[in-house]
């Protein structure tokens, strides 16, 4: 005798019958799914020759200073430290007589966009919008599901507003 | 999950279904799971590989060569690209039948994968595995085509077939495992699990026994072909335990979980993305007030033309990025000789320190009315991005110093760096790929990891 196919709702009335109410957005939505802001960072711009970079970076590590967003320039490099490490970073660089400039009051805007590597043009689009928002952009970075933009508090508001629209 | 079924999803990648011998091994894995009381759902990738008569590339070429000037329709290319998985599922289901097990080949849509309507890179909007569960309840093994779903609002009778983009079979498997509440997702490949580096470069690369979804998603994002980030994201969201294993060995493989139960491990692995071209746009000749808009406009142009950026960097006087070599010519064509009026001045973008024929012509055409400002772009070909992933390590001072020292010792020039909470990337000449990967693998103690 042919087996009767019962409707799913009758078959699975107990336990976790997840497929009875399938999610309408199974994956996170395409494009930007959210933004957040983290405060209290300082930007350090160092003037140094290419072969000095490694020595300076080691000197900072030896002082126990952790930093992010290291970006190389022809005339030196930039990085970001937590504001609590700002003084220590300045001291370490001063001890090595390194020409540098520290700017506090920086924040990181995190733009969530899952699978952005596959969404061609998405990273460029986010950075374009952020640039056109009028916010000063100090540094940028990316993760598998995030674009990170270092700016000022006021700049963070502009970027967030711009990306929302 | 139906109380009577202990469901596991077993996904077999291309290398596991490529030859009759490999398919036989894969089928025995499925049967072995069933004999342990598991209700297996099989997800398969395409059988054919480049150069073979039924490989996806061969089929695409068959259409493209009709008239290279006319791009094929995306909708119809999805129909074509789904063929490899359909063939694979039919062959695999038949093998299971010949071994005495009831099996049914199913398309992604029949397995309940519903997507949006973006051909070639569709996102899953919902999974309704009623048919899949019914096949299991009847005692058969569903063999589902990976990489595909259906868009049910296409306007045509029946549903429109869509493909899920790169890593689509991983995504299918994770989505089905989540939807049926599977006790695990097993990803079968031709290596023992997730390695600390590519074994062809580092022969003593170790197999990770445990990793978090986040670590693996980051490694995949940075070029390691282990598990697609979308699949990792779905597994994380729906708390599906994942095991990455070798079809051809009894190694226990790598187990992926949400919680970090191996907090003392500082490093996870080294990934690399080869064949990149680095562009550095010098905005310093432009007035300071014009630079953000120039940068925004140029980046907007790249976005409009769907350029994928790697290692983007922005500072006041310049911005830089790397692109896959396949997109470099598009970027050069877009930017070279581009005229950008801003803040009362006219700017001409030029590739190289000296203007090429297009930039020179543009400058000449503009010369009677205005003195254009040149914005030189340095283009460095033959680059590769090497990334170290290690969340706990990134919290420690000295990770940059360690990386730069290790590379300097091997005389590897570093062109640019980039980092995140969980990773650090360096851009180096492609010729230095192997020595750089080995140097970083050794420096971060990945030879001793487990």
Verbal overview:
The complex is a heterodimer of chains A (165) and B (450). Chain A has helices spanning 8-11, 53-62, 86-95, 122-132, 153-164; strands spanning 34-47, 67-73, 76-82, 99-112, 139-143, 146-152. With 165 residues, chain A is α+β, with helices and mostly antiparallel strands. Chain A has a six-stranded antiparallel β-sheet with strand order 2-3-1-4-6-5. Chain A is elongated and about 55 Å long. Chain B has helices at residues 20-35, 56-64, 74-81, 83-98, 130-137, 168-180, 213-221, 229-237, 291-304, 325-335, 357-366, 391-394, 399-409, 433-443; strands spanning 7-12, 39-44, 103-106, 113-115, 124-127, 141-145, 148-151, 160-163, 184-189, 210-212, 242-246, 254-257, 269-282, 310-315, 318-324, 339-342, 345-351, 373-389, 416-419, 423-429. Chain B has an eight-stranded mixed β-sheet with strand order 3-6-2-1-9-11-12-10, sandwiched between helices. In chain B, strands 13, 14, 15, 16, 17, 18, 19 and 20 form an eight-stranded mixed β-sheet that branches. In chain B, strands 4-5 form a two-stranded antiparallel sheet. Chain B has 450 residues and is of the alpha/beta class. In chain B, helix 6 runs parallel beside helix 8 (229-237), helix 7 (213-221) packs antiparallel against helix 8 and helix 13 crosses helix 14 (433-443). The longest helix of chain B is centred in the N-terminal third of the chain and has 16 residues, at 20-35.
């Amino acid at each position: 005798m042919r087996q009767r196919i019962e409707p799913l709702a009758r078959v699975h009335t107990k336990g976790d019958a997840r497929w009875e109410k399938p999610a309408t957005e199974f994956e996170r939505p395409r494009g930007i799914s959210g933004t957040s802001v983290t405060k209290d960072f300082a930007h350090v711009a160092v003037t140094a020759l290419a072969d000095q970079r490694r020595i300076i970076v080691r000197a900072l590590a030896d002082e126990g200073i952790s930093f992010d967003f290291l970006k190389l320039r022809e005339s030196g490099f930039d990085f970001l430290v937590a504001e609590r490490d700002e003084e220590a970073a300045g001291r370490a660089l001063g001890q090595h007589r390194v020409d540098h400039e520290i700017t506090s009051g920086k924040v990181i805007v995190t733009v969530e966009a899952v699978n952005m590597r596959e969404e061609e043009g998405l990273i460029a689009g986010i950075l374009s919008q952020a640039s056109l928002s009028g916010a000063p952009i100090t540094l940028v970075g990316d993760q598998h599901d995030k674009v990170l933009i270092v700016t000022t508090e006021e700049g963070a508001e502009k970027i967030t507003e711009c990306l929302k629209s | 999950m139906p109380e009577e079924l202990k469901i596991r999803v077993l996904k077999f990648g291309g290398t596991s279904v490529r030859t009759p011998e490999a398919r036989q091994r894969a089928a025995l894995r499925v049967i072995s799971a069933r004999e342990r009381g598991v209700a297996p759902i099989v997800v398969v990738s395409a059988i054919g590989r480049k150069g073979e008569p039924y490989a996806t590339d061969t089929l695409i070429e068959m259409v493209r060569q009709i008239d290279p000037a006319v791009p094929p329709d995306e909708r119809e290319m999805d129909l074509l690209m789904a063929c490899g998985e359909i063939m694979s599922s039919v062959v695999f289901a038949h093998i299971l039948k010949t071994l005495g097990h009831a099996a049914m080949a199913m398309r992604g849509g029949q397995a309940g994968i519903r997507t949006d309507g973006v051909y070639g890179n569709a996102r899953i909007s919902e999974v309704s595995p009623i048919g899949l569960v019914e096949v299991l309840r009847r005692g058969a093994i569903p063999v589902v085509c990976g990489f595909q779903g259906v868009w049910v609002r296409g306007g045509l009778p029946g549903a429109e077939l869509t493909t899920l983009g790169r890593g689509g079979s991983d995504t299918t498997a994770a989505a089905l495992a989540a939807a049926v509440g599977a006790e695990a997702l097993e990803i079968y490949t031709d290596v023992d699990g997730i390695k600390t580096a590519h074994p062809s470069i580092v022969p003593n690369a170790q197999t990770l026994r445990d990793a978090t979804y986040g670590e693996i998603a980051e490694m995949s994002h940075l070029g390691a072909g282990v598990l697609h980030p979308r699949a990792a994201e779905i597994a994380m969201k729906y708390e599906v335990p994942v095991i990455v294993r070798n079809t051809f060995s009894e190694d226990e493989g790598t187990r992926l979980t949400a919680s970090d139960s191996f907090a003392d491990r500082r490093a996870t692995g080294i990934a690399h993305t080869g064949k990149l071209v680095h562009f550095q746009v010098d905005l310093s000749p432009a007035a300071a007030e014009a630079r953000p808009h120039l940068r925004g406009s140029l980046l907007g142009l790249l976005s409009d033309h769907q350029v994928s950026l790697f290692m983007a960097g922005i500072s006041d006087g310049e911005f830089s990025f790397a692109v896959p070599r396949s997109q470099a010519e598009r970027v050069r064509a877009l930017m070279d000789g581009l005229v950008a009026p801003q803040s009362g001045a006219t700017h001409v973008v030029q590739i190289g320190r000296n203007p090429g024929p297009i930039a020179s012509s543009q400058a000449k055409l503009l010369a009677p009315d205005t003195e254009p400002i040149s914005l030189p772009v340095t283009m460095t070909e033959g680059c590769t991005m090497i990334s170290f992933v290690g969340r706990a390590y990134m919290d420690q001072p000295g990770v940059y110093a360690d990386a730069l020292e290790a590379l300097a010792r091997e005389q590897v020039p570093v062109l640019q760096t980039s980092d995140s909470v969980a990773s650090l990337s360096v851009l180096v000449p492609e010729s230095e790929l192997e020595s750089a990967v080995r140097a970083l693998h050794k420096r971060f103690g990945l030879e001793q990891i487990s």
